[in-house]
Amino acid sequence: IMAAPLPKKEIDELKPYIDKTVEKVLGISEPTLTMAAINCLARGLDRDRMKEQLRPFLEDSTETFVDRLLGAVDEVRSARHGREKDSRNRKRNLREVFADEDTDDVAASKKAKKPPAFDDDDVIPAASAESPGMLTKQQIQQMMENATKQIEERKKQMKLMGVGSATSANSPSGGAGGVQANMLLNAPTATNYMNDAIEKAKRAAELQAKIQAQLANKPGLLGTMKSGGLPLADKPDKVQLVEGRIVDASGREVQLVQRTPTLKANIRAKRREEFKLVQDKAAEVDESSPFFDDRVSLKPAARQRRPFKFHDPGKFEAIAQRVRAKSQLEKLQAEIAQAAKKTGIQSAAKLALIAPKKDDTEELEVPDVEWWDSVILRTESYDDMDTGVDEQGRNQEQFVGVTHLVEHPIEMRPPSEPNKARVLPVYLTKKERKKIRRQNRREVQKEMQEKVRLGLEAPPEPKVKISNLMRVLGSEAVQDPTKVEAHVRAQMAKRQKAHEEANAARKLTTEQRKEKKIKRLKEDTSSGVHVSVYRIRDLKNPAKKFKVEANANQLYMTGMVVMYQDVNVVVVEGGPKAQKKFRRLMMNRIKWDDDQPSRDDDDDESDEEESKKRNKCTLVWEGTVKSRNFGQIQFKISPTESLAREHFRKHGVEHYWNLAHSQSVLEATEDETL
Questions:
Q1: Distance separating alpha carbons of residues 553 and 578, to the nearest angstrom
Q2: Which residue did the predictor score with more confidence, 347 or 72?
Q3: Kind and range of the H or E element at 628?
Q4: By the 8 A CB rule, do 620 and 659 touch?
Q5: Of the ranges 160-174, 506-520, 602-616, which is most confident?
Q6: pLDDT of 354 strictly over 70
Q7: Closest CA to 614 of 659, 661, 566
Q8: Residue 450 in 3-state DSSP?
Q9: In which element (H, E) is residue 236 found?
């Protein structure tokens, strides 16, 4: 069971084992399952939680996979602990053998272990003098002598300690000495350790000598590195920038060596600077190119840092002041509303609020002459109304067209009256219809008999049926009844076929039936269009919206539906029959309050409030107009009252909205009063 999350190093060691486990369980390598298992190990999940996490990937094989995975974790941990224990034992033995060595010799041996910084093929040139920090030949020789002396001393000490351990083992009181002797190494092991130390010292000396020889072959390198890229002898005293070049006092161009950063932080900083330079170059666009489009804005590749935006002092205090003032204003408005309810002026005040705004300058302007007086006045103002005298000395009439005669205007035809007089149809009784049909059939029969008499048509065959077979044919039916019956049945089939063909000829086609139905539904609105305006509180239900739209389209009616809060106005235009059917739909068939939530409350006040807020449809106005103002019915959603009014203003029927909205305001006022 996992107790703690695994470190990253152990997870890297476990990754190959996890891949092999996935291949054994599934038969194929699955990177997604491998990453999920690594995630579970990194989080330190136990066996049950690990099964829950991996069950969507493995299903039935989850338990087997988790067992193998945890087994691999235990194996890796045990192998790791074994290696760490062996390394600790080896280090402890080395410390016991070389405990008395100097720190300088240890540092020299560590340096000797490092790999050479330069290969034989690419050797950095150096100055002829020995570089600082390198061991000289005398130092190397002295180090070898010291190491040899220490080794000889160690051998002598080990021989003495071996003799002492042997004597202490023979003595009866040698308990502590025996333990100390057991802790010491035996002679062959100590000899091996000493031989290894001598070989390491020799290799370090050979490496130092090799580096010294290689640097001696290429002089001038260390001097160049010391002087910042130039030899000490050739380093200029003063440099200057001339025409983009760096030159010394003599005018010779100087090449400066650029420092290459080795620290990772400096490397990342340098890469960021190079990336910015590349981005700046990429941002430079040639506007003279034929492919340049100034309408397209260039966005930077990296998002710019957004600075802190501090609030101005006193900002939130001002907001608090506005909130307090708003609350006080609302409280004052509530008090005024209560007073208005008592005085009865609330409805008038609300109607004044919804009245369309007018320009004050239009009301203040007083015309010189009213439009109804401008027709009869001779002058352009009321100041010159006095009766004048013309050139011949006669009194000039004060008004034009005003005499002692009485004018009788011509009576105009109303627009809804039809052009032709409508003739009332005459309906016959059932007895009269039968008599006319009998007379018509008698005339047709007489005409056919005359044609047969004159030889224009062949006489019709006798109408034989199974019932009158014996009466019509007589002896022929007795002689061969089978033949006669077949003849009679063929005659009956012929008459049936002729009847069906006549019916099929009179039958209307699909297009004719469609045209007949449309003609029956479409009404003649040339003499006037009937209009109805409905107001609904809530029209958000899509089923009810579909019923309104579908019925209007089926009845070939035009109009518009404007939806604004609790004032949803439906305007439909069509003939009288269509208006009758649509009115029945809106007022009776659709149950507008069905979608309201039902409550089983015993409180009478809650019932009254629910009845006030109940959805309903109201017929605002119906009448006739000269022509249609709308096209096919459409739904318009208006977030504001001005936008809803604008929809009606576009079609020249703004008064529909004024009437519906004012009734809604009055109804809301009455509900609040109750």
A1: 11
A2: 72
A3: none
A4: yes
A5: 506-520
A6: no
A7: 566
A8: helix
A9: none
Closest CA to 635 of 532, 559, 556: 559
55, 60, 65, 67 alpha-carbon torsion, rounded to 10°? 100
User: What does the DSSP 8-state code read for residue 46?
Assistant: -
Q: Is 378 helix (H, G, I), strand (E, B) or coil?
A: coil
Q: 558-564 and 634-637 as β-strands: parallel, antiparallel, unpaired?
A: parallel
Tokens 């202490």 sit on residue: 168
Q: For residues 635 and 470, what is the distance between their CA atoms, to the nearest angstrom?
A: 75
pLDDT in tens, 326-346: 999 999 988 887 777 666 666
pLDDT at residue 472, rounded to an integer: 79
Q: Are 563 and 637 in contact (CB under 8 A)?
A: yes
Task: Collapse the DSSP code of 463 into the 3-class scheme (helix H, G, I; strand E, B; otherwise coil) and give the result.
Answer: coil
Burial (CB < 10 A; 0-12, 13-18, 19+), residue 97, is buried
Q: pLDDT digits over 233-266, tens only?
A: 455 556 677 766 777 777 777 776 666 767 788 8
Q: Which amino acid is at 604?
A: D
pLDDT of residue 226: 45
The Cα 30–Cα 34 span in angstroms is 6
Widest distance between CA atoms in the chain: 178
pLDDT in the model for residue 131? 43
Distances, alpha carbon 185 to alpha carbons 42, 55, 79, 190, in Å: 43, 56, 27, 6
CB within 8 A of 380, min separation 6: which ones?
368, 369
Beta-sheet strands, E only, within 195-346 = 239-242, 245-248
Average model confidence (pLDDT) for the chain? 76
Beta-sheet pairing, 634-637 with 239-242: unpaired
Do residues 469 and 477 touch, judged by C-beta distance below 8 A?
yes
Residue type, 201: A
End-to-end C-alpha distance for the chain, whole angstroms: 73
The better pLDDT of the pair 575, 416 is held by: 575
pLDDT of residue 77: 76
Residues in the chain: 674
Average pLDDT over residues 652-669: 90
Rg (CA), the chain: 58
